[in-house]
Amino acid sequence: MSVARDLRVLLRFQDFRRLLAVRLLSQGADGVYQVALATYVVFSPEKQTSAAAIASAMAVLLLPYSLVGPFAGVLLDRWRRRQMLLYGNLLRTLLASVTAVLILSHAPDWLFYVSALCVTAVNRFVLAGLSAALPRVVDPDRLVIANSLSPTAGTLAATAGGGLAFVVRLAASDSDAAVVLLGSALYLCAALASLRITRELLGPNRELVQPRLGAALVGTARGLVGGLRHLIEPRRRVAAWALASMTLMRFCYGALTVMVLMLCRYAWSSDSPGASDSEEGLALLGLAVGVSGAGFFTAAVVTPWTAGRLGPGLWIVTCAAAAAVLEPALGLPFTEAPMLTAAFVLGLVTQGAKIATDTIVQSSVDDGYRGRIFSLYDVLFNVAFVGAAGVAALMLPADGRSAALVITVAVIYAVIAVTMARFGVPKRQ
User: Fold this and answer.
1) Do 98 and 12 touch, CB atoms closer than 8 A?
2) What's the distance, CA 149 to chain centroid?
3) Sign (positive/negative) of CA torsion 27, 256, 121, 111?
4) C-beta separation of 375 from 84 below 8 A
5) Per the omega criterion (within 30 degrees of 0), is the bond before 234 cis?
6) pTM greater than 0.70
7) Looking at residue 172, what DSSP letter applies?
8) CB 70 within 8 A of CB 372
9) 313 and 356 in contact (C-beta within 8 Å)?
10) Are 320 and 105 contacting, i.e. CB atoms less than 8 angstroms apart?
């Protein structure tokens, strides 16, 4: 089987394996930390959570550090990416430990959110650096399979970390701080793993490196304008359309995520609407996360072959079209089994489209601009996710059942499929 053969060849690249290890540990820690935050904010028995509260928490955690994204890209195109992986994970180790202390001391919510914001802000540098560095450790012929394995493996690691956090949280009461400290330990392991990578290997090229912070920040505005101009050049328009499509798919993902959170918290955890059994709801959410992770894994297996046969652009069209049909068919009953199947479909199409988008961007963007473009990519993701949470807060009733939201998401998926087919698929000569 060609995919298995390519995977075996890819894993023979020592530097790829080392970069992959950093990603797995780092994103595994992300999964632990994010579930700890979610359970503390959404599933604490003393908190009566609403969709508006979830949207507010997402806005606090995601929107402010979207401002960091452009600066992260410019710095990643000037600073050594390996050093960013090392120091970024060390800083997150410290900040996550502070979050645990705040949980134990019952500090005010605003202090908790500031601490969580700092952890996730550093995350922007780490994830953008991992994506920008990937072409430095594989050859161009295997970039698609690398984009399939590496980010998807990271997502699966985050899912596994989240599953571990769920187990710890369910096994021991009032264990949110312990779960956060587990994430802190994994961040430290990721920092140590980055030391196995040669300092210069991940780029950028030596002539682009600007060690002085002041010099890098002064050039931020000029660098961003240059990155945007680079992206919208005629021969890179396909990359721009792919980014736009993936942003809208992220919006759909965010809206459905909030809906599932509310269903798990209220509709599926008790026979009486509005009542809550936080432990039962938490177990259901853990199952939904696991099923979605299986979709991510399936995308990693299927995408290299399908994207190779159809082309990455047409594979994005296929994913969006499938979601437009299957999500309302499975989601509108608002019962556990069909909705869990919908979670699998959502994981498959979202990750499949992301692998294809990463490949299009990496193949179209020059190395000196990749950090900026991937940071912009990240900002669009987060703004779309928060915007989706806000829309969901306006549309969702107390128990999370909203046919209007499911249908709206299906229409957006259909628009993505049609638009990407029209503008984002290169015309065959």
Assistant:
1) no
2) 15
3) negative
4) no
5) no
6) yes
7) S
8) yes
9) yes
10) no
CA-based nearest residue to 86, from 181, 197, 176: 197
Please choose, from the candidates 229, 428, 260, 240, the residue with its C-alpha nearest in 3D space to the C-alpha of residue 340. 260
Identify residue 282 by its one-letter amino acid code. Answer: L
- Taken as a whole, the chain contains a residue count of 429
Per-residue pLDDT in tens (0 to 9) along the chain, 429 residues: 455 676 677 788 889 999 999 999 999 999 899 888 877 777 665 555 666 767 777 776 676 666 666 666 666 777 788 988 999 999 999 999 999 998 888 888 778 888 888 887 788 788 878 888 888 888 877 777 787 678 778 878 988 898 888 888 777 665 788 899 999 999 999 999 999 998 888 877 766 555 565 666 666 667 667 777 777 777 777 888 898 999 999 999 989 988 888 888 776 765 444 444 566 777 777 788 788 888 888 888 888 888 888 888 899 999 999 999 999 999 898 888 898 899 999 999 998 999 898 888 878 877 777 777 777 787 788 888 888 888 888 888 877 888 999 999 999 999 999 999 988 777 654
178-181, Cβ contacts within 8 angstroms, sequence gap of 24 or more: 178/100, 179/32, 179/35, 179/36, 179/39, 180/32, 180/33, 180/36, 180/96, 180/97, 180/99, 180/100, 180/103, 181/96, 181/97, 181/100
Burial of 100 from C-beta contacts in 10 A (0-12 / 13-18 / 19+): buried
* Contact status, residue 357 vs residue 365, Cβ threshold 8 Å: no
- Which residue from 114, 119, 163, 429 is spatially nearest to 296, judged by alpha carbons? 163
Q: Copy the structure tokens of residue 272.
A: 């009486």
Q: Which domains does the chain have, with CATH numbers?
A: 2-424 (1.20.1250.20)
Neighbours of 177 (CB within 10 A): 18
Rg (CA), the chain: 21
φ, ψ dihedrals at 335, nearest 5°? -115, 160
Q: Distance from first CA to last CA of the chain, Å, rounded?
A: 30
Q: Which residues contact 329 (CB under 8 A, 6 or more apart)?
A: none
